Amino acid sequence: MEAIRVEGLSKTFQVKRKEKGMRGSLKAILHPQVEKIRAVDNVTFSVREGEILAFIGPNGAGKSTTIKMMTGILYPDGGNVEVLGIDPVKRRRRLAYEIGTVFGQKEQLWTHLTPYDNLKFFGAIYDIPDRESEKRIREIAELFELGAFINTPVRSLSLGQRIRCEIAASLIHRPRVLFLDEPTIGLDPVVKENIRTLIKRMNTELNTTIFLTSHDTGDIEKLCRRIIIINSGKVVLDDSMEHLKYNVSDTPLENIIMEIYKSQGKGEAV
Q: Has residue 232 got a pLDDT over 60?
């Protein structure tokens, strides 16, 4: 069964251009120059239920724009999107009850509250009855091993502990699809491995579909069986990890990805 289906997805932005100096500023006001940028260009792919997929590409490739259209934050110019059979454009509120999002560089927790209080807060947002909310908090606290600091204000936690709490908070409503954007960014190797273990447990025990974006090839290699690379708004590769690592080349995954980027005219670091 498909958890995500994307067909011919496209999105164009209009960006104002300005020349240098005061003259350029005045010209931009009187005669603004607008350039159309095709951020996502006819993207098509699907994700099976329970799959962990890596969706990667260099900066500006169109990853975030694609995710925002899948979650209903942005509306596409063309094409169709369905997440769990729900159209994000027409039923964004309904979709919000079925998906979770974690952005490694953006906090969703209230830092002056404890993890427990944050989980209660998110439970209320998703209209979860109090008794059921308490049950889910216990289950999540056990799964993510939050017991030692569940009553400590978030601002006093380490970065690794906060990321664990961010992911835990995204699961309070039991989403069937979880979008993870750089979940291990800035973490030390030991904590990264702990987060990866938790993601695997989520997938195995809860059958959560994981849509992962990451510049860390360790995340990709250890978590994902399939990888999609997007570049200049287009899907340039959709393949299994096994084929990439063993059938294409014996070189490290990072080098393989770099070669794909360069072949598409983007030589930026992974």
A: yes
Strands 52-56 and 226-231: parallel
Amino acid at 40: V
Q: b/e string for 80-106 if b means 16 or more Cβ within 10 A?
A: ebbbbebebeeeeeebbebbbbbbbee
Residue type, 189: P
Smallest CA-to-CA distance from 6 within 53, 49, 42, 37 is with: 42
More reliable by pLDDT, 123 or 250? 123
**Per-position DSSP letters for 74-130, written without gaps between them:** S--SEEEEEETTB-TTT-HHHHHTTEEEEETTS--S-TTS-HHHHHHHHHHHTT--H
DSSP 155: G
- The whole-number average pLDDT for the span 210-229 is 88
pLDDT value, residue 150: 95
Q: Give me the helix-helix angle, 159-170 and 115-125, nearest 10°.
A: 20
DSSP 6-21: EEEEEEEEEEEE--SH
Q: Give the mean pLDDT of 167-186.
A: 86
